[in-house]
Amino acid sequence: MDSMEQNVWYDRFMELVFKKYPKRIQLVKALIELLSLEREAVYRRLRKEVAFTAMETATLASAWNISLDEIMGVNVGKVSFQMRAMNYLDPSEEEANFLRFVIQSITYLKNFPTTEFMDICNKLPRQLVAGYEHLNKFYLFKWAYQYGNEKDAVPFSKIAVSEEKKNITKEYYKAIKQVPNSNFVFDYNIFNYIVKDINYFCSIYMITEEEKEFIKKDLLHLLDYLQEVANNGYYPETHNKVNLYISQLKVPTGYSYTFTPEVNICYIHVFEKFEIYSFHSEMTTNFISWMQQKKKTSIQISEVDAKSRIEFFATSRKLIESL
User: Fold this and answer.
1) Do 137 and 34 fall into the same domain?
2) Which end of the chain is more exposed for a tag (fewer CB within 10 A), N or C?
3) Has this prediction a pTM greater than 0.90?
């Protein structure tokens, strides 16, 4: 690799390092802790007076999910997906900072009118659930019960969500409305699935009848909100465009992508609360194409098809009220 090529990939690497934290003081603190460097040594690297060593570069790439293959233009015939495991109940300081970084990044997207988010989902997406305390807690409870360790398998009443996590969730719910264009394709059984889940946990006494009523109220409020969005075709808070679709075929796995003029990313949703993701340009392009094709087997209920819209919300309301 000649010096010009090396400079190009290193400059790109440095761009991603600077994007990790919006404020220089936060970035410096994070680098000091992660690389065990003195403050002045960090500043020299940020000023490019000294380059990060190979070991430091590898450490940053691993900790901050930076694909060196992609920024160096290495084509090995494979697409790398990454996953960042999170403790959503009580995030560490590093995890909380990462979540805030995500929120700041989402808010930044409002500056690009062509930005588009699309989610194909077989469960209620977190972008919508985040605004409803008991419903959001139910998904955290379900995640902890299914994928946590033995001590996490506790009743709904004992799921403790830290105040910090509650505040981050509120910030996220507010930020997501800043995305200029959003598309959601729901599995036609999306509300049926959650009603069955709630009834199951009630049957094994992990959720009380009183707690079920709280979740039910949140579901009805969410349904009212979605109906307003579907009627108008936008978020009422920001008037940013939202298209809602109902898939006529079962949705076996959740997928999403975010398209922006600066960077694109695609996700596969796994283990209830996690995602594996890739910035790989070809894979992201394919994701966008595949997911757009899904609209062929879906009915748009926002603005367009009033009959289907009325039927979907009436059926969903009846399901929820059966709880």
Assistant:
1) no
2) N
3) no
